[in-house]
Each structure stands twice: as structure tokens, then as C-alpha cells.
Amino acid sequence: MGFFKKYPIFCVVLLLLLLVLGGGIYLVLTERAKAEEARDDYESEIRRLEQVSRGVPYESEDGDQRILPNAENRKVLEERLAQVTGDLQRIRQGMAARSGNLLGDTADEFTFLPKLQSFIASLKAKAAANEIQISRNEAFGFASYATRAEQPPTDKIPELNLQRQVLDYIVKKLIDAGPTAILAVERELVEADETEETDRNRDRGSRRGNNDDDVFTIEELVTARSNEYIETSAFRLVFTGRTDVLRQFLNTVGRFEIPLIVRSVQVEPTSEEDQPEEEEAAPTDNQQDSLLALFGGDDESEETEEEAGPESIPGQDPVITENQSKFTVVIEYVEVLIEESESTEEGNS
């Protein structure tokens, strides 16, 4: 401090010089980064130019060929571009029409929860009508809003409503396939940031019988989500049944009535734990026998055993056994975010 008081002008000039030096270093580093980025862009354009100069791949009757981008082949390339653009437009319109018919039910902060309750009730009724076992607390991916009646964030309602409609389609197709039981229906979490999703996915553990945590985070190696042009919403279904149930379900989803992609299928043998949580436990045979013995029902049980005795052959195994498996299927709903104007500009370039 004494040195500064003794030589104030020198210290101020030295401080200014240090600031100038720091600013110069920052500018040098910034310009160097820009130069490296420009060099990478230049090399990328050179590779693209070399690729184009080798010719454009084109399918013809003689097989795959390459057409050089010159004036003579311009008409052929323009016809090919118009054909591809028309095909893409028809595919886009067809997908929009099908998705609009199946996923066109809008909702807001006042109608989302009532529609969610109706969605859960209708799926439970359909499962009961088809004699499919489900948990008594099953909320089909929306336990936090169904059991506690939480109001979702207003800005997330469109995404949640889309998930509700996609799940309604998927679960109904699964029920039509006739599984023995639906153990879990989970959706990708869209209400939290990436950190909360990672923590929730890491600490989740076993979710069977705990429907308050019926969300999951899809792995990056599995998802079809890439860059800013493709957005997806993932769903995971766990159910038991025979192999033909899985086959019928996947074939139905593969009809592409809405843009769904099956990302993974896991098959494992069923165990005693692979049972949904039921309303009430059915009385066991021992409990029934004890009740009958208490009220003098032994004679009736003995008569029943005597009547059934001659029909059963001891030591003989059934000829056909139904092998049950546990299936875990991950499905993604895909949205292409490229606008028509952008695709046209890319095609012209």
C-alpha cells in the first residue's frame, strides 16, 4: 500500500497495461476459436463439393447410378427432386390427417384433469371387460395427477395431453392383443428439467406396485431423438402373456396409424412377483377348508372330492401348457419439426 502511495502514477499505468494485456489475450483466444471454426466449415464444404462433384445417386432400371450435376443432367435432377418433394408432401399430409383424427383432442388447465380421469376410467373398464389384470391404483402414467389431483404446469399441458392421447391409443391396442396382466405403464417425464429426470431415474429402483412413480427417462442410445428436427415422447409398457400377444401388439403398432417406433423389447420368464396389486386377496384353499370345517362343511367337501376323483388321473401331466412371459416394450412417438419452407430451401440448395 505504501508503494502505491509513493508511486501512484506508475501503479495506475501498470494496472492499465495489465488490463490491456488481458484484453489482448482474450481477443487472441476468441479470434483463434473463430478461425478454427471457419477452417472446419471450409473443410466441410470442400468435402461436400467433392461428394457432389462425384455425382448424385439415382435409381434407374439399370441399377444405382451417379449423375453428374451439369447442364445436361439438370432436367433429370429437377424431375427427381420434384418427385421426392411430392412423395414427402403426400407422406406428411397422410401422417397429419391420421394423427389429427386420433390425437386431435385439445385440453387446457380447466379440462385436462377431467379428461385424464375419463381416460383412466375408460382404460380400466376396457381391461376389466377383457378380463385383464391391472393394479387397483393403475393410472397409466399419470399417477401424480390422478391420485393426488395435482394441477400440472400450464405450459406443459399440451405435451401431457399429447402423451395422454398416445397412451390411450397404445394401451387400447395392447388390451386388444389380450395380455394376461398389465404390470406397468410409464411415460417419459416432461415436467422436470434434465437434472431432476436423471435423479428420479437413478433412484427409482423397482416400480412394481408403486404407481406414484410411473415415469422414466429413456436412454440416449435407445431414443430416436436427434438434433432439433426430430422430437420424441417415450413410453414403456410391462405386461405378461404368451408370445402371440406380443406379436399381435407389435404388428398393430407397426401399422403406423400414428408415428410410433418400437425402440426395444425385453423378454424374460414370469415369476410369482409379476402380479399386479389387486383390490382384495382371494381366499386360499386352506382358508376355505378351515371355514367349512368350522361350520360343519366337511361332508360337502368330501363329496366334492369323491365326485372329482374318478375324472382325474394321478401322475399324468397336461399335454399342453401355456408358457407365460414378461415383456417390457419401449415405444416412441415421433414428431418431425422440419417445416415445409425449410425442406424446400434445403431441396433447392
Summed up:
This protein is an alpha/beta fold. It is built from 11 helices and 8 strands.
Mean pLDDT, to the nearest integer, reads: 76
Strand content: 15-25%
Total beta strands: 8
**Shape label:** flat
**Distance between the first and last residues' Cα:** 65 Å
Under CATH, the topology of the largest domain is which?
Alpha-Beta Plaits
Going by CATH, the architecture of the largest domain would be: 2-Layer Sandwich
- Helices and strands: which structural class? alpha/beta
| Assigned CATH class of the largest domain | Alpha Beta
Helical stretch tally: 11
The tally of domains stands at 3
Can you summarize the main beta sheet? Answer: 6 strands, mixed
Low-confidence parts: 200-211, 279-284, 294-312, 317-321
H and E order = HHEEHHEHHEHEEHEHHEH
